[in-house]
Design a protein that fits this description.
Structural class: mainly beta
Strand content: 35-45%
Bound molecules: CU-O-CU linkage, copper (II) ion
Shape: globular
Number of strands: 30
Radius of gyration: 21 Å
Largest sheet: 6 strands, mixed
Strand order of the largest sheet: 10-9-12-17-14-15
Number of helices: 5
Distance between the termini: 11 Å
Length: 487
């Protein structure tokens, strides 16, 4: 059985949040003994390609485009270094932890072997400051993924980066490909993500009410449809590829070229609406899986979700905008195919005010469907919580105090996601993808306020897997649960 007290110490159960020891790495009685063996080394099979990288996580300063911030990042950039493999490759990544605290790396969306999943307390020990750790896994499925730590609210620093798994069968019906990483940014602007969480948690403790800079507006007025209230934090900056709109990333192409965009929401507390001025986008994939292509002027993307879209570019300069849902400001990059004056950093493409596609309305491609099968078991995933005090829970208790979901290998398992809160939660399951009632395959799905959604997964990857809200503040304040295979 799990050692609950140690697990909640490492992963931020409510008892820990209440005392503000959020990324606890200090154990007064010295380091706790390891519960996790060093994973067995993987050797490449005959003909298997090996993709190797060395990653450094450390404190650094970054120029967001005229604004310099002190933060933590992989490889001194945000987004961090792109890792690219082909489906079936053996991926070997050594992480050097030069941060002042524990960390880990989670390979978001990849159905990898459990020991490489990067969740301290569940699949490995935390990687202590000053040491290194080797991740080895086979990346089975093509798609757009990303990686980030699974410790505290480190994701809301600069510690995130794209991970692309190419499909050897993919015809590649486009001329160019761009990775577009969205983020909400606070670190180094006078407070850190740990400060933000402590402020929200602290407001619970003394009952003194709303605190400076926190978006409490939803408590009185609610957000705009369809997601109701969708975030707790007002961010000073929203970024595309690490740049603010006043000094944007500029993507160059020729008129008439067809581009594949791989769009990743690495934000911690923000759903974005994405639009490219003057163009419709054709959405082709979500969370790595092909969909029936669908044209959209704009679409929503929740934290942890990925959408791929193709577009044939016109002649000129066009804003690629990600508008934070229910919040002020925006992220913007520029696409330049010809002469022209760059649009204003606050430009609002008309597409944002037309119909906006919700990812859950996409239909799967035939090849993406799970074979039809009735569920062998149903597990309730009941989401609850509140802002004041700042507490979030699954199945009635915060992580560390809730009972792991228990499933059997080989079963078709239905997760009944039931959202009993006034907020939208991007729910993510590690190590698996699930099918929505339409058959759409995803690993992260937006569950709207006071609504429920049944998703089915095939229990084909034994281990202990985190299931949680990808609002990192909600997760850290308790909105996580383990999904464990029975031995
Ligand atoms: Cu990107 Cu546990 O998640
Ligand atoms: Cu949430």
């Amino acid at each position: 059985m799990q050692d609950l007290s140690r697990r909640s110490l490492l992963l931020g159960g409510m008892a820990v949040v209440g005392t503000g020891a959020l990324t606890a790495c200090s154990n007064p009685s010295g380091p706790a003994p390891s519960r996790f063996a060093i994973p067995a080394r993987l050797q490449p099979l005959a003909g298997q390609r090996v993709v190797e990288h060395r990653l450094t996580a450390r404190a650094t300063s970054l120029d967001l485009g005229g604004t310099t911030v002190d933060t933590w990042a992989f490889g001194d950039t945000a987004p961090g270094p792109l890792i690219r493999a082909t489906a079936g490759d053996l991926v070997r990544i050594r992480l050097d932890n030069q941060l002042p605290t524990d960390t880990s790396v989670h390979w978001h969306g990849i159905a990898l072997r459990n020991v490489a999943d990067g969740v301290p307390g569940l699949t490995q020990d935390p990687i202590p400051a000053g040491s290194s750790y080797l991740y080895e896994f086979t990346a089975p499925d093509p798609g757009t993924y990303f990686y980030h730590p699974h410790v505290g609210v480190q994701l809301d620093r600069g510690l995130y980066a794209p991970l692309i798994v190419d499909d050897p069968q993919e015809p590649g019906d486009y001329d160019l490909e761009w990775v577009v990483v969205l983020d909400d940014w606070v670190d180094g602007t006078g407070r850190t993500p740990d400060d933000v969480l402590a402020e929200m948690a602290g407001a619970a403790g003394d009952g003194s009410g709303p605190m400076g800079g926190m978006d409490m507006g939803h408590m009185s007025m609610g957000g705009t449809p369809p997601f109701g209230d969708a975030g707790d934090v007002d961010y000073p900056h929203y970024l595309i590829n690490g740049r603010v709109p006043t000094a944007p990333d500029v993507l160059h192409a020729k008129p008439g070229q067809r581009v594949r965009l791989r769009i990743i929401n690495a934000g911690s507390d923000t759903i974005f609406t994405v639009a490219l001025g003057g163009h419709d986008l054709t959405v082709t994939h979500t969370d790595g899986f092909a969909v029936q292509p669908r044209a959209a002027g704009a679409f929503y993307i929740g934290m942890g979700e990925r959408y791929d879209a193709t577009v044939t570019l016109a002649d000129g300069v066009f804003p690629l905008v990600a508008a934070p849902y229910g919040k002020q400001g925006q992220a913007m990059a520029l696409i330049r195919t010809g002469a022209g004056v760059a649009p204003d950093p606050v430009v609002r493409p008309a597409e944002l005010d037309g119909p906006v596609l919700e990812g859950a309305d996409l239909q799967p491609s035939e090849a993406s469907r799970l074979p039809a099968r009735e569920p062998d078991s149903t597990e309730l995933v009941h989401l609850s919580g509140q802002m004041m005090p700042y507490r979030w829970a699954i199945n009635g208790a915060p992580f560390g105090q809730n009972e792991p979901l228990l499933i059997d290998e080989g079963d078709r398992v239905r997760l009944h996601l039931m959202n009993m809160t006034g907020m939208t939660h991007p729910m993510h399951v590690h190590g698996h993808t699930f099918a929505l009632p339409s058959g759409l395959r995803k690993d992260t799905v937006l569950v709207k306020p006071m609504s429920s959604l049944a998703v089915d997964l095939q229990a084909d990857n034994p281990g202990a897997w985190m299931t949680h809200c990808h609002n990192i503040y909600h997760a850290e304040a308790g909105m996580m649960i383990a999904l464990n295979y029975r031995p």
